[in-house]
Amino acid sequence: MDLRDIFGKVLERKLNLSAKGGGKERKVEVIVLANSGYSTSQELFLLKHEAFRYSPDLIIWSYVLNDPAHPVFHNANGELGRYYFKPAFHTANYVSRKLFEINEQRKAANCGEEYHALLHCVYWGQIASNIREIGNISEKQGVPIIFLIHPILEEDSSFDNYSLAPVHTKLGAAAVDAGLPVLDLLKAYRSHNPWDLTLTSEHGFDPWHPNEEGHRIAADALVKFISEGNYLH
Q1: Which of 106, 197, 216, 231 has its Cα between 20 and 30 A from that of 112?
Q2: What is the pTM of this model?
Q3: SS3 sequence, 83-125?
Q4: pLDDT tens digits for 168-182?
Q5: DSSP states of 195-223 as a string?
Q6: Phi, psi (deg, nearest 5) at residue 193
Q7: DSSP string across 15-72
Q8: Burial class (CB in 10 A: 0-12, 13-18, 19+), 80
Q9: pLDDT tens digits for range 128-160
């Protein structure tokens, strides 16, 4: 997919069009700091050490339900992660991985088998802590951070019977408690078929990456949310 079609750049164009149409002398620039496969811990590093170098008026925290995954032990970064991760001692890394897996299995005993729900069951304490940290950074810096929740595209289901809705509700409540405005894209996606929104490839159905239409829907929802919340003056 062309990078010009990702929702951040579509949002930029739409916000500038709306400003021009409304007679506002405002130029919006959207800087995308997203990195493929990054987990929340890595995204927090970017927020703390890079995002505010650009003096942002607004930040959008794009949350996908695989974000709590460990960047190495869950292989969240795929080949990219394996390329950059070079353990100093392979034996120590092997032991650490096994201990991680044993601890996860112990905690996951009552969490069910669905991957995304399991992540939010096993690691909820850390997830809630990370969301509070995002809220604290937003308050300290005086910059609003919109907590944007992306649905998983379920291959054999529709959004009317979306199995992960309770996870969205829990995340939204945690973000509100942290003082963050929340936009859940589940409502915007609900009238669409997941097959019409997925970025399919030679590997088949992709549950995490929407196609151009999915990005457009996300951008439209954000334009409306930002306008109604008067986040850009």
Answers
A1: 197
A2: 0.88
A3: HHCCCCCHHHHHHHHHHHHHHHHHHHHHCCCCHHHHHHHHCHH
A4: 999 999 999 999 999
A5: HHHB--BTTB--SS-B-HHHHHHHHHHHH
A6: -90, 130
A7: HHHHHHHTT------PPP---TT--HHHHHHHHHHTGGGG--S-EEEEEETTTTS-TT
A8: middle
A9: 999 999 999 999 999 999 999 999 999 888 899
pLDDT for 54 equals 95
How many other C-beta atoms are found inside a 10 Å radius of the C-beta of residue 210?
A: 26
Residue extents of the structural domains in the chain:
33-148+171-181+226-233
Within 10 angstroms of residue 121's Cβ, the number of other Cβ atoms is 17
- CB of 39 closer than 8 Å to CB of 76: yes
Listed in sequence order, the residues at least 6 apart from 120 whose beta carbon sits closer than 8 Å to its beta carbon are 65, 68, 127, 167, 170, 171
Is residue 68 within 8 Å of residue 40, measured between CB atoms?
Answer: yes
Q: What backbone torsions phi and psi does residue 126 show, to the nearest 5 degrees?
A: -70, -40
C-alpha distances in Å from residue 111, one per residue of 104, 149, 157, 168 = 11, 21, 21, 16
Q: Estimate the crossing angle of helix 165-177 against helix 124-141, to 10 degrees.
A: 40
